[in-house]
Write a structure and sequence with these properties.
Cytochrome Bc1 Complex, Chain D, domain 2; disordered N terminus; 2 domains
């Protein structure tokens, strides 16, 4: 009995050791979303996919943050109302709830504030908040949904952006191979991925790319060792503060699902992940990496691709005779 007890204890300790998360790593696993109000999330999902929140009746949140394409649009800069060219690369919406602020320059404190920006931006969805609310108020099914979720008879933009934000909070991507390795599954990563992660730490990438999102939690200057050359006019945080010291200071992007969110950087100038690794090592860290080192870091970065959001596409309620008509060709 004693030998059996010792054997059982040994097996139990071995299993526990295997299941225990890795210690003292600068990156932590993504955890699945916890939904506390499913009705609000479902309403937010409808709004996220509804192009009637734009002046053209053609552009939705999903247009620039396509959930079939890593939560981005895979363009250097997005296409806005009347085919206007956007000023900056569209960040992924996946895991965006983990960011310390929203937009490249952090001008929105949270997802709720961010959700209202594109609707009223003449270069993006080209509408106004009042007109967007008028559209929703003309659709009985939306009126009923807002009443059930928010216990109010009148729809406001505050409720619209709140619902969108609640849906976006569910767009996390857990169970990446790297997360499984963090939690103790040694077989989840290849030898090259492990070597790439060691290099990623050794050369200093984790100084900025750390935490569950592998970024998104600080603002850093683009071009610390060498200047970054670009024709993109975006100034980063300096565009808000007017301080030249903040020029080219941007929110560090998440590296979660980075193999899906090309092209890279705020100007979308680089389409290949290997090129992006090389540029960042030289400009930010002063390191000229060998081709094999770049390849190994790239393999590691691809291990950060997690389970993509999966859900039934929303069926949007139909417009009525009272719904304002879209204006796709009006500037």
């Amino acid at each position: 009995m004693l030998r059996l007890s010792v054997l059982a204890l040994t097996v139990s300790m071995s299993v526990a050791a295997f299941a225990a998360p890795q210690k003292n790593e600068p990156i932590q696993p993504i955890e699945p979303a916890v939904v506390t109000n499913q009705a609000k999330v479902e309403l937010g999902k409808q709004l996220f996919f509804d192009p009637r929140l734009s002046k053209s009746g053609f552009i939705s949140c999903n247009s620039c943050h396509n959930l079939s394409m890593g939560g981005s649009d895979n363009l250097p800069s997005s296409i806005g109302h009347n085919w206007q060219e956007g000023p900056i690369n569209s960040p992924t919406v996946l895991n965006s709830s983990l960011n310390l602020a929203q937009f490249w320059d952090g001008r929105a404190a949270d997802l709720k504030e961010q959700a209202g920006g594109p609707i009223a931006n003449p270069m993006e969805m080209g509408f106004t908040h009042d007109l967007a609310v008028d559209v929703l108020a003309s659709i009985p099914q939306y009126v009923q949904s807002f009443k059930e979720v928010y216990k109010a008879d009148k729809i406001t933009i505050d409720e619209v952006t709140d619902a969108i934000a609640e849906f976006e909070k569910t767009l996390v991507t857990p169970n990446a191979p790297f997360d499984k390795w963090l939690k103790g599954d040694e077989a989840a990563l290849s030898a090259d991925a492990k070597a790439g992660y060691k290099l990623f730490k050794d050369v200093g990438c984790t100084a900025c790319h750390n935490g569950p999102a592998v970024g998104g939690n600080s603002f850093q200057k683009m071009g610390v060792v060498e200047a970054y050359e670009t024709n993109n006019p975006a100034e980063g945080v300096a565009g808000l503060t007017g301080d030249d010291l903040d020029r080219f200071k941007f929110k560090v992007p998440t590296l979660r699902n980075v193999e899906l969110t090309y092209p890279y950087f705020h100007d979308g100038a680089y389409w290949n992940l290997e090129e992006a690794v090389d540029v960042m090592a030289r400009l930010q860290l002063g390191r000229k990496l060998e081709k094999e080192e770049i390849a190994q870091i790239t393999v590691f970065l691809k291990s950060l691709t997690g389970e993509q959001p999966s859900f039934t596409m929303p069926i949007l309620p139909p417009s009525t005779a009272a719904t304002p008509r879209p204006q796709p060709f009006v500037k």
